[in-house]
Amino acid sequence: MKISFVSLILLQCLLISCGMSNVKVPQNMQELRDSSKKYKSVSVDSYFVKRQFPLIVRDVKKQAKKCFAVSISKRSFVGGQFDFLNLNFHPIVSVTKNKLELSLQLNYGNDVTKPSFGWPKGPAPGYYLLVVDVNRIANKQSKVTTYGAKRIVANLSPSINSWIRGNIKQCPNMLKFNRKPKS
User: pLDDT above 90 covers what percent of the chain?
Assistant: First the structure.
């Protein structure tokens, strides 16, 4: 049985409210990476790129801030009524001499560090959607590995991969970050 990662979070909420959950919401980047070994809905995508590491760092930092540090209010139908849903995306980029880590976290306008009815406890500033590791292998070669729910990776990776390759494209449509990609 295949379950999407976002559906897994929603299922977690239901199970927590019933006191029956043993499925964990990733609390850090490593837990999201490890979830790819446990859940078929979490993908791992790896490839090599020939480009100077400092240029990759510059472009990913710039574009992640521009494209992912956004808040969106969206009208949605919840519980038999229309309501506004606030999507607050939080990109975090950390860099060492030979590694860049990009994580994208999301909260729905609530304090995710405190469990509330229907929502499991999550890490600050939000639930992990995606982690991208760029490891320098040589002066002009790096290995890129992306972890996250298949739909999220399919929708956001094309933009992230273009930043890494130096072909800066427009930002992805963050309203469609979890939509089923067109085949």
Answer: 45
Confidence of residue 37 (pLDDT cuts 50, 70, 90): confident
pLDDT tens-digit map of 44-92? 999 999 999 999 999 999 999 999 999 888 777 667 777 777 788 999 9
In a domain, 95, yes or no: yes
* Segments forming the whole domain that contains residue 99: 5-176
Question: Three-state SS across the chain?
Answer: CCCCHHHHHHHHHHHHHHCCCCCCCCCCHHHHHHHCCCCCCEEEEEEEECCCHHHHHHHHHHHHHHHHCCEEEEEEEECCEEEEEEEEEEEEEEECCCEEEEEEEEECCCCCCCCECCECCCCCCCEEEEEEEEEEEECCEEEEEEEEEHHHHHHHHHHHHHHHHCCCCCCCCHHHCCCCCCC
Count of structural domains, the chain: 1
Q: What's the CATH code of the domain at 29?
A: 3.30.530
Does a structural domain hold residue 31? yes
